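Weekly puzzle thread! Below is a chain. First person to post its structure in token form gets bragging rights.
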Amino acid sequence: MTVRPFIAVLALCAWPLSALAQSDPCAGISPVDTTTLRSVAVATGFVNRPLLLTTPPADNTRQFIVEQDGIIRLHKRGTAVGSWTTFLDLRSKVSTRGNEMGLLGLAFAPDYATSGYFYVNYTEVDPSLNAWTVVARYRVSANPDLADAASELRILRFSQPADNHNGGHLTFGNDGFLYVFTGDGGGGGDSTGGTCGNGQNRNVLLGKVLRLDVRNVDPASRAPDCGATGANYRIPSTNPLVGQANVCEEIWAFGLRNPWRGSIDSTTGDWYIADVGQNCWEEVNWVPAASASGRNYGWRQMEATKCYNPSNPSCTPPADSTSCSPKCNDASMTTPVLEYAHSAGACSITGGFVYRGCRMPSLRGTYFYGDYCAGFVRSFRMSGGLVTDQQDRTTQVDPQGLLAGSLSSFGQDAQGEVYIVDQGDGVRVIVPPFTAMEISGKGAADMFLLKPTEWTWENLFTSAQVPVAEYRVYRNGQATGAYTCVFKGTTPRWTGGDTARPSAGAALFYLVVGRSAGGELTSTGGAQRQLSPAACP
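Winning reply:
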């Protein structure tokens, strides 16, 4: 009896996903050895100014997109880019007065899967037209794809003296505490903070990173200090200013102008804070996890590594001569690890995330950032406290130059993959080049299976969010050499499979490739396997 062996060049064995380590976020992902990048759209069609993508912990199926005008959208992986629903609509609460106010931050609780709690940061205007920042907790409804709009619990509310420099980012640290990034209150040169500005004033919440216990993590936590009115949080006992007089004990770090955005490396716990500059300099601050507490990032005495002087518009002015302290370049200040000037259209940094994804292991440890105005996307790595491996990724991930004037944010999902958020074109995910990817490559959850009723393989759009215009199955009488196309289709299956049978003592070998809309083909898995140029049947 002639037997057709179940052999696929790119899939020698097929383990069901349930047999993989469930705690491994990369289970079922076929890695690609490349540092060359591309980006593909995952969610588009937003008209309310998207500015963040995030996901609940360990949720690999849903993506939540924050729109500045007050809406959180939900997009499910593997669905069309224009297919999304509304998770929560806060437009009746949110004020978008000016260009920078709105719904600015979203963070899911570490125990979201059981508690259903998530936190938002937005601005509102009271009847007297005064602006306020609100940090509030919501919960999901009985429908996991819909929030309970009536569940708001206000955590913190504080006054904003101007309509700009609101900060707004929220993130949970590896310690379980909520970190709130605040701007300096607006006005040119931190002018709403008096002679010395808000950034250096530790008796206000503006221009800071706040560290709050909103989940009863610390049994020794303290009552709210500067945010006491209507506050629903506790102050961790390990906050750096706890017990000191005439300061806000909520403060974790200070000396910031308008952090946009900050992130914590999920592997190392190191901090990255991109702080938008005044007239001349943009900066990225980095501090190791073990010494992140109590840092002074310098504003308004410093702009990046240069002195800032509100009386001197020069980009390298002398130090401010007022009585404000500490002075420029004081040893107590933490200077950025990277800065760049307002040149070639650059004017406002957009901070990102450290890549800890599954698809491109060689990229892990790379921090991505960009500039809202210039639209560039760049990256670097930290090694020994120094910036290394600086790369300009713009032509790779944005070859059409669409990000200039609209690079509002980056995003990161539960698997550590990094996204680009474009106010004008929605959300893209950073991926390897199409030609470097394999269909049902090593480690993929959906291997190439030759079943009696149908042959199936990996759906690259579902697993990697990369669209495939056509799948092709190729056949050969040996493992290496030239393969001939025997099937093509738009779905990852072949009903009935191949009817050809090998001769006695021989075998037939098959592989699958995908074709992009632009005509590119995915990898065959090695140069020893070539594809015949003959047309597919």
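Puzzle host: Confirmed. Bonus trivia for everyone else. Helices lie at 112-115, 394-397, 460-464.
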